[in-house]
Every structure is written in C-alpha cells, then in structure tokens.
Design a protein that fits this description.
This protein is an alpha/beta fold. It contains 7 helices and 10 strands.
Length: about 280
C-alpha cells in the first residue's frame, strides 16, 4: 500500500477543489468527446508517440528513440518535448535527419517547489507531457519515457489489442532485468486504496507501466494534473491520469505481456524512484 502524504492546508484545498472539478466535468467531457469522434479505427492508423525529456540526449536517442525506430509497426510520428533542455538534445535529434521526429523545447521559469526530488518524480514532466499532447496528429497516442526501451512489436501489439477488444486505453507490462519485477495492480485495490469504487464499476483492469500507456487521441483532452503531487495518495501524474480515465468511464484494458524494458541510467544502481531516493528521505 502506498504511504500517505502529510498534506498542508493549501494542498488539501487545491486537491479537494480538483477532485470536485474532475468529478463534475470529466464523465461529461468523455461523452462529448465520444460523440464528436465518430472515426473508424483500423490497425493501420497513425500513432503519435510522445516523449518528455530533460537533458538526457544520449540516453534519449540510444534507448527510447532507437527502440521506436525499430518498430514492426512503422506508421508513427515521434514528438519530443524538452522541459527547458540546456544540453545538446536538439542537435542530437537533428543529426538523425528523420522527418518522423519533431522536437520542441519549452522555455519557462520552473517553480522552486520542484527543487524537491520527489515532486520532480511525481509531476516534474507534466508541462512537457501536456504540451506534447497539443501537438499530436495521430488517431492513437503512445507514451514512452526517454530512458526506456520498447520491444520491436510494442506498437503493433497495442493497436491490435485495442481494436480487437474495442478499447480506448491499454497498458501492459515492462521488465526490469536484475531487479525485482513489480506486478501490475488492479485499479480498484487495497494497494491504491480504491476499493470504495467497486460498488460503482463492473470491470477492474490492471494498470501497467507509464511507458506502455496507449489510447485514442480524443483522450488527449484529459491533461495531466500539475498538482498531483499534493494529493494524499496516488500522487504520481500517470496514476492520477489513469484513475481519472477510469472514473470518467474510459474503456480500459490490460495487455498481460512484457513489451518494454527499464534499465538503470548511467551511473545509477537502481531503477525507478529508488534511483533518485534510495533512502526514502524525500517527501
């Protein structure tokens, strides 16, 4: 079970307001988006793959971009959004000379509150991710972190699974060679403290890793929550988004296959959050 965050008064006010706003609007938003989106989806549609990144030029190209370019499914575009990158990310991308890849580097003053490592982990990428969602042209959206690697059939398996099962969103497994494999957890579970939803919903899919998220493009209008880190529980931006999808009524499925890999970054001995906070000292 997740550790509860000790919210400040302002955290509680902002979180309660957002919870009320999402509850009031997002199911209606989903119904409206569905009514406006009457497209026929096929296994040949354009997929928009997006990558938020910050000063990881080498690993971005060597892992994420390289694994995308090797896909068996080739009808995709890659949108990379730099979160105020100051390294040679743009030069590295330009050197690929690939028309499928678009790079935009944001320029804004970052808030001091994101000097905290855990808050960066929970929500630091949100501005870049939300901007990427405004740029996509495909009928499907696929997310990958800049330091992760996809299997070569990653996109093919996800689009096929969604269409064959009439889904709007799917996630799947990834592996962590040399580290304990974290098993995906059901949306309604004691782990997420969401068992209270079981009286309302008939299905209870599992949720896989963020870099396996794949969904119909009209869902791009559900933006990531910049204030997710203020919540008492389920504070990461990816989990916040998928829980809102679920509560709104998005058709969610889980592909029970490993279609990605996460490895330690250069110089690290851990993966995931433990790589930046091995001692659990950040709140």
């Amino acid at each position: 079970m997740y550790k509860l965050y000790n919210q400040s008064f302002s955290d509680k006010i902002i979180t309660n307001y957002l919870n009320f706003y999402y509850h009031l609007t997002e199911a209606k938003k989903l119904n409206r988006l569905r009514s406006l989106n009457q497209d026929t989806y096929t296994k040949n549609d354009l997929i928009s793959v997006y990558i938020p990144t910050y000063n990881r030029a080498d690993i971005l190209i060597e892992r994420a971009v390289s694994s995308i370019l090797k896909q068996t499914y080739q009808n995709f575009e890659i949108i990379i959004v730099g979160d105020c990158c100051t390294d040679n990310t743009e030069d590295k991308i330009k050197s690929l000379n690939n028309k499928k890849i678009k790079f935009v580097n944001l320029n804004y003053k970052k808030k001091a509150l994101f000097d905290n490592a855990k808050r960066v982990w929970l929500a630091g990428e949100v501005k870049a991710a939300n901007h990427a969602l405004t740029l996509i042209k495909g009928k499907w959206v696929s997310r990958i972190d800049d330091d992760e690697i996809w299997t070569e059939d990653h996109l093919e398996k996800k689009i096929t699974f969604c269409i064959d099962n009439d889904l709007e969103f799917v996630s799947a497994k990834h592996q962590r060679p040399g580290f304990k494999q974290a098993e995906p957890v059901h949306i309604m579970s004691e782990y997420f403290q969401t068992n209270y939803l079981k009286d309302k919903f008939k299905t209870n899919p599992k949720i896989g890793s963020h870099s396996t998220y794949f969904y119909k493009s009209f869902l791009k209008h559900f933006k990531y929550n910049e204030n997710c880190w203020r919540k008492k529980i389920n504070r990461s931006n990816d989990l916040d988004l998928v829980l809102r999808f679920f509560k709104a009524g998005v058709k969610i499925g889980f592909l029970d296959e490993i279609i990605g890999t996460v490895l330690p970054r250069p110089g690290d001995t851990e993966v995931g959050y433990k790589a930046i906070d091995p001692d659990g000292k950040f709140d």
